[in-house]
Amino acid sequence: MTLRLPTDLDLALDDISGQEHTPKSALVAEAVRQFIDRRARAAQIERGFAFALEHDREAIERLADA
Questions:
Q1: Is residue 30 part of a domain?
Q2: Which residue range(s) make up the domain with 52?
Q3: pTM surpassing 0.85?
Q4: How many domains does the chain have?
Q5: Residue 43, CA distances (Å) to 25, 33, 38, 52 in order
Q6: What is the rounded average pLDDT of the residues 12-34?
Q7: Are 53 and 60 a contacting pair, CB within 8 Å?
Q8: What whole-number distance in Å separates Cα of residue 28 and Cα of residue 14?
Q9: What secondary structure does DSSP assign to 2-51, as a single string?
Q10: Tens-place pLDDT, residues 32-59
Q11: Does residue 36 sit within a domain?
């Protein structure tokens, strides 16, 4: 895989790579992993809200009116 980054991001990644003594590829892989995990958590939260609205709509509406 080839990844093209804007110069400013590439330079910042070079700096971090040197400071952390970690290859740039490992840093990018971790960033992608975190991005995927955040999206999965967000989807899980959305499914939870949808479930609650479907199964507890009446209780939620009573709470809103309180």
A1: yes
A2: 23-65
A3: no
A4: 1
A5: 27, 15, 9, 14
A6: 98
A7: yes
A8: 11
A9: -----HHHHHHHHHHHHHHT--HHHHHHHHHHHHHHHHHHHHHHHHHHHH
A10: 999 999 999 999 999 998 998 888 888 8
A11: yes
